[in-house]
Amino acid sequence: MKILVINAGSSSLKYQLYDMTDESVLAKGLVERIGMDSSILTHKPTGKEEVTEVSDILEHTTAMRKVLEKLVDKTHGVLNSIDEIDAVGHRVVHGGEAFKSSALITGEVKSEIRRLFDLAPLHNPPSMMGISAAEANLPNVPHTVVFDTAFHQTMPEKAYLYAIPKVLYKKHKVRRYGFHGTSHAYVSKTAAEFLQRPIEDLKIITCHIGNGASLTAVKDGISVDTSMGMTPLEGLIMGTRSGDLDPAIVPYVMNKEELTMNEVNSMLNKHSGLLAISGSSSDMRDITDGWEAGKPNETLAFEMYEYRLRKYIGAYAAAMNGVDVIVFTAGVGENSAIVREAVCQNLTYLGVEIDKELNKVRSGDPRRISTPNSKVEVLVVPTNEELMIARDTLRIVQESKG
């Protein structure tokens, strides 16, 4: 079965085409600047030369058509016909409480995704544009949707409710949802497979740390707590997001600086985090370079980032009454040996001991960076959300056929 995985943004459309007989990637690419002047389509067929095309692409349906044209192109294509595509899997950020797992797309499912626009105004509307564009171009194949929030629907009430009037939850569904669930699910499962241990017997803390970042406590194979909340703003310090802060700061700053709600929301999401502390960059590579050079602002940013990350690991070890495995993944987690070492050298109370030489090794495969004496396995597991979406799509399509 060949499955096309789509991840649509407001002005972009990412795609990967999988052959699920061996889970190989046949092609992948990205359409950027949709609706702007000079849209860019970058197409990377496996085993062939990458191609870039600049043209005017005004909306997602045209972008999808351009992608399909590249997939069947005589020179750069990997298919003889689009009829070889058996299913399409879509990523949607917010599934609310309605979706505890991935789903086959129906009219009812689309209506529910639209109903959730208020909870994810920056993410769900572009996802719906991607779904509509793909259905218009591929109307005769099943389409599925995989939600970033679904993995966290196993959290108990004590973890997902906020200590505010419960009427706000009942009327408006104000609660912790968590995000990056597709990644947390993939790396926790992959970690258990790597260790050749049943995931049901493990207490795992997965650290998805990139420009956006979250931790999840995975106990017995399910999410029992996660650091992001009703929105992706809560939790860790991130590239441009503040993470946790006293909620009273919001009205205080609005009053003192005469800011609107939109302005303070923009401040917390786009102008805070590492960018605000360092005053120079939201990129951890720049922050670590500055830290190593002894620059005070970058040093403070690095120390605050590591401290918050380490606090959450300690909290989740307490929440699960122990931890067997700590997994680092995503851009920073997979690539920054400095961040991993800084965090782990302050977790010795848990029995964590990493091998500094193993920690420096770069690899695209899951690997252990802890010593044989470490009481906690510490792993680096490259995330693969697209493959997780393809696997879920395959399962759903097969189940729908009986």
From TrEMBL:
The active site is at residue 148. GO terms for molecular function: acetate kinase activity; ATP binding; magnesium ion binding. It is an enzyme of class 2 (transferase). Gene3D superfamilies: 3.30.420.40. Pathway: Metabolic intermediate biosynthesis; acetyl-CoA biosynthesis; acetyl-CoA from acetate: step 1/2. One of its GO terms (cellular component) is cytoplasm. Its cofactor is Mg(2+); Mn(2+). One of its GO terms (biological process) is acetyl-CoA biosynthetic process. This is Acetate kinase. It catalyses: acetate + ATP = acetyl phosphate + ADP. ATP binds at residues 14, 208-212, 283-285, 331-335. Mg(2+). Can also accept Mn(2+). Homodimer. Mg(2+) binds at residues 7, 385. PANTHER family: ACETATE KINASE (PTHR21060), ACETATE KINASE-RELATED (PTHR21060:SF15). Substrate binds at residue 91. The keyword Zinc-finger does not apply. Its EC number is 2.7.2.1. It comes from Paenibacillus macerans (Bacillus macerans). Its main location: cytoplasm. The record marks 180, 241 as: Transition state stabilizer. Keywords: ATP-binding, Cytoplasm, Kinase, Magnesium, Metal-binding, Nucleotide-binding, Transferase. Catalyzes the formation of acetyl phosphate from acetate and ATP. Can also catalyze the reverse reaction. Pfam families: Acetate_kinase. The gene is ackA. InterPro entries: Ac/propionate_kinase (IPR004372), Aliphatic_acid_kin_short-chain (IPR000890), Aliphatic_acid_kinase_CS (IPR023865), ATPase_NBD (IPR043129). Belongs to the acetokinase family. It comes from the Bacteria.
